[in-house]
User: Fold these one by one.
Assistant:
Number 1:
Amino acid sequence: MHMIDLRLKPDRLVAHAQMHGHNRAQDEDLGYAVHSWLRAALGELAPLTFRLIEQRDGALRLLGYGRADAETLRTHVRQFAPPLAVAVCDWAGAASKPLGEIAWQRGQLLAFEVRACPVVRGKQGERDAFLAQLPTGNEPTPNSRAEVYREWLCSKLKEIARLETFDLKAFRLVSAWRQSHAADERKRSGRRIMRPDALLSGRLTVQEPDAFRALLHNGIGRHRAFGFGMLLLRPA
């Protein structure tokens, strides 16, 4: 597994989204646009999870976990990617580092941050985990949003890692557009959905090192292909 670091050009990304019918007023973030671009540019080499960070100068930085290093990505793009997709990224500045040989230790304490989409599935379909537990009638007062999201994150970590501290750093509800999977992009239908967008941080203790490595690779929660679920780590 490799961590990749790409610098994207916002105007070229929007142009790519426009060309493929993904630049819609119903989309309040660039998750779908980046998902579409990654598939067009990198195909099966696209990272499974990524985090899009807007820089102060307006540029976009994409961090991701995937199975290919920067040189492999550059080679693939030169050989196979469409010109419009190639133009979105500064491929000469693409960087990566290998993560596969890192030996995570049982009991290791790490600080983390993750942009998550804390949703649950039930009879009413997919819902914000906080809204799903709001009371009806004379039921007890619900937990706070932060408490609910903490429980949600613990349920995803399971026995892999123990949550030591937790902070809900930021939250918003985001309108997003989801398309069907028709072969012809121009004929795809779609629908508008509202989803929670939460920035979670804290400290955790690794309990199962091998499973923790897989967790990093696969991400946490739903909508990982659209910029959610990438666990970023630093020394605690």
Number 2:
Amino acid sequence: MSDAAAQPKPAEPTGELAIRTIAMPAAINPSGDVFGGWVVSYMDLAAGISAVSHAKGRVVTAGITQLSFLRPVKVGDVMCCYTDLTRTGRTSLTLRVEAWVLRRGEGDRLKVTEADFTMVAVDAEGRPRPL
């Protein structure tokens, strides 16, 4: 068996790339890591971007479940959020959102956070509408 065959394959993101950004110093907490809320806000944007295309119109975030912070995000990390549609209902849909980083923009991708976002399609008055 070759060394390459013995090495585990790096994990890969699930779904489609929805948004990419870079962690800047303004987003850090006193410990020097990026605030979890900053990460979740970009995950919510990614879920919204993807949900709008599936719902063919405006959506709102109804809930976030199964949120797991796996690793810290550091200043200079390039964070990418991937979305995967996991459920559709009459007026809502759920997307699995994974946040991955490239440390200082290079090297292997590392999964830092994951969660399920439930989005509801709404009409012009903000009332739920069928998908």
